[in-house]
Amino acid sequence: MEDKRSFKLVGAGSSLSQEKIQKPTLTFMQDAWRRLRKNKLALVALWFLAFMLVFAALSTTFVSKEDANTFNSNKVTTYRNLPPKISDHLPFWNGTIKYSGSNKKTDVYKEQEVPKGKKFILGTDNLGRSVAKRVMVGIRISLLIAVVATLIDLLIGVTYGLISGFIGGRTDTIMQRIIEVISSIPNLVIVTMLGLLLGNGVTAIIISIAIVGWTAMARQVRNMTLSYKERDFVLASRALGESNLRIAFK
Predict the structure, then answer these.
(1) Most buried one in 24, 60, 83, 157, CB count within 10 A?
(2) Cβ contact 29:39 at 8 Å
(3) Is residue 71 within 8 Å of 124, Cβ to Cβ?
(4) Contact (CB, 8 A) for 37 and 26
């Protein structure tokens, strides 16, 4: 009778095992990578962007900007507007083209007396320059502008929006009016003015994007900051003695 009345613990055998957390703790980067892997489209885009970055970096060793832009003015009629060619027996890449009004394909390489063994994977433009080489150089320039402009957006936009949203009040009002003034200026005007001052080039494009591109990022960060600063974990951090600067950037 005494054994039947005694209390027996069902389940875990000790309090230590009951307090044990089974799920491992994740850092900020580990949690971000876990959420990114769930988005298949974003993951494919990430690998494609990584491939483009590696390809652009490696292409600098065998294709220069001068090589892609230079052409021989004496041989423009020979090399201009050539179709793609890899092999004589490969469809769509055999150097032939069907002109409008004709049912027969024409071997443009033979018609324009292009030297044997000379092939262009993506053809040539109206000046006889290789389209494949120009695409390689264009990828490098596009990625350079995109990466630099994004870094400027993050540096200026995130900092500006964080200060505006976290401080609030009159400071927030003044900073938002400044963004409205900058956003009201057309991008074409800024690009044209910088083109006249700095000339045509990548520098003028990067600066023009940096001047107006960060405003959207600043507004998004401000809205998120206004939402997060009213939550309980921010109040708890302040109660524990954390500074406003550390809370804002954390």
Answers:
(1) 157
(2) no
(3) no
(4) no
In angstroms, rounded to a whole number, what is the distance separating the alpha carbons of residues 62 and 42?
31
Phi, psi of 97, rounded to the nearest 5 degrees: -150, 150
Closest Cα partner for 127 from 73, 86, 181, 177?
A: 73
Three-state DSSP class for 78? helix
153-156: long-range pairs with CB below 8 Å, 24+: 153/210, 153/213, 153/214, 153/217, 154/217, 156/210, 156/214, 156/217, 156/218
**Contact between 196 and 188 (Cβ < 8 Å):** no
Beta bridge partners of 85: 94
Closest CA to 152 of 235, 65, 218: 218
Dump pLDDT digits (tens) for 133-183.
899 888 988 888 888 888 888 889 899 999 988 888 899 899 999 988 888
Confidence of residue 3 (pLDDT cuts 50, 70, 90): low
